[in-house]
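Give me the fold.
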Amino acid sequence: MSGSISGLQSIMSCKSKTKKLDISLAQWSLHRSLRSGKIDNLDFAKITKEKFGINAIEYVNTFFFEKAKDKAYLTEMRMRAEDIGVSSLLIMCDNEGSLGNPDSDKRNNAVESHYKWHEAAKYLGCHSIRVNAYLANSFNEINVQDYHMTDTYQDQIGFAAEGLRKLTEFGAALNMNTIVENHGGLSSNGSWLAAVVRAVDHPRCGTLPDFGNFLIAEGMMYDRYKGVKELMPYAKAVSAKSNEFDLDGKEINTDYYKMMRIVIESGYSGFIGIEYEGNRLDEISGIIATKELLIKSIEKLRY
């Protein structure tokens, strides 16, 4: 572990024309341990620092879903992170409805359901909440052959932009960002999601490009490098998805060197969030492998 930590410090301090990058940990990387009760949400900051030498975290709302308005609980979360020097960056928000629902009442209900997460994130010291622009009930809702030629594609830009704009304006009043991840369905089309953010046209609305979430429909995968390149101009966070590694420590689905070149060349400055969700390595080993790969990729690009 000490080698990984010193390697990260050298990345941050090396002289380079590229902007500062740092590494954070997305809570989803530990979702099996959290769901089983092996670890508790309140211990996330401590585990992140002690086991991985990482000083910034990204929460997932489903691990404290009923606590969004529980000030005592949020205070404990905040204090546990602050006491050990861990920064809380964002909350990834799911299960609060579709911000791009074609039904205006359902869309507005979804927007308002997210308000409490902006307030909770603000209280925790975060800069953003991550939301979803499009939620299909099933991949079958999208016609693999002609989805981009239908009214659905264009109409959903308008619906999603309307919901996002309303939520963004609420967050902006709190000095918070509303950021959108490519997270399945139309949102996994980088061109579509970029068009949504342009339509929102607000400095507090941006993206969280994920290296791996590019499955539009069953049998239809969007090019991940093209997608990340399209989303990086609006990025306020980045998610380094990983699943499986070869014997050389390379992620088998994503060329991290190629992906990090796209991130760095975009001029992005900020955190790269580790999001391990593989099965072959246990969660701790998978997080460490992802961190080491990120460090190697960034070092190679910086020199």
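The radius of gyration is 19 Å.
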